[in-house]
Amino acid sequence: MTSRLPALASLLLLAGCTAAPPPRPPMAAAMPADDNLNATAWVQNAVEHDLIYLQTYRDAQQRLGAALADAQWDALTPADRLQSPSGLPPAVVLDVDETVLDNSPYQARLIRAHAPFDQASWDAWCREARARALPGVVAFTRHAAAQGIKVILISNRDQALGEATLANLRRVGVPVSGPDALLGLGTNVPGCTQHGSDKGCRRQWVSRHYRVLMQFGDQLGDFLDIPQNTPAGRVAAVKPYLDWIGRRWFVLPNPSYGSWEPALFGNDWQLAMPERRLRKIESLRVK
Predict the structure, then answer these.
(1) Strand, coil or helix: what is 251?
(2) How many whole angstroms separate alpha carbon 197 and alpha carbon 119?
């Protein structure tokens, strides 16, 4: 038997070689990188995403009664508060996209088509009025409305998309009513000049008519205008209001897009995509 071991070993080695699968082709290396793939996959498939929204809106709802009862309570910054809130009716102010409505299907379409964002396709998506409500927001806004609190949406969707957006909001059950329910991009605020997509003028308009109990958004610009859109400038802008987070301001996650992204490449959208991507990579901490 001892003399047969080398032959047996040779046969086993040969069998192992023939059974080994061929090497996999380097598919990952051949596929172009898409910075939004993981973000959109997380938004659509991670239960943690939905739980964050549910947790946020439930917590806000539990705090809403105390805010309503406190006549001094207000969620607008001094820069946005142009008139004393004393005696004004109460309101809550919410952003629309990724705060009330989930637009991840639009992001998914861009990923599958290997296409960048463009205004025409975005407008077409908005006009479909098919975005779902994010978890917790319908219950919260209905609760607020039942307490006599006005629900106001300040959105950077263009005013021309107003009717489609209101139809979408009503379809999912958000209580929107009256001409001031949705203040879109391009809303004229007398005496105030809007800079880009800043929402300050519209918040100032709200300040003349309502005491704002809470604000909700997925972007820092949903709560205050940012004087300097750099990483350090963004930290400095929100620093005076850290005690408001989770009390007056409720911040929701958006890993897909936002002003945080251009802050990483000098707000220069004229840069080629590879250069923008390189600068984002350079911003990453490794320790």
Answers:
(1) strand
(2) 14
Instruction: Report the pLDDT value the prediction gives residue 20, as an integer from 0 to 100.
Output: 60
Distance CA 46, CA 49 (A): 6
What's the CA gap between 249 and 75, in Å, rounded? Answer: 7
The phi, psi pair for 155, rounded to 5°, reads -125, 150
Residues 163-200 have pLDDT tens digits of: 999 999 999 999 999 999 999 999 999 999 989 999 99
End-to-end CA distance of the chain: 60
Backbone φ and ψ of 226, nearest 5°? -105, 110
| Mean pLDDT over each residue of the chain, to the nearest integer | 92
> What residue type is 135 in one-letter code?
P
Does residue 138 have a pLDDT over 60?
A: yes
CA dihedral 246, 249, 254, 255 (to 10 degrees): -70
Cα(95)–Cα(254) distance, integer angstroms:
12
> For residues 103 and 176, what is the distance between their CA atoms, to the nearest angstrom?
19
Q: Could you give the residue ranges of the DSSP H alpha helices within the chain?
A: 5-19, 27-30, 37-45, 47-69, 104-113, 119-128, 137-146, 162-172, 200-207, 231-238, 273-282
Q: Which CATH architecture has domain 35-256?
A: 3-Layer(aba) Sandwich (3.40)
Query: Between vectors from CA 135 to CA 132 and to CA 136, what angle results, nearest 5°?
Result: 125
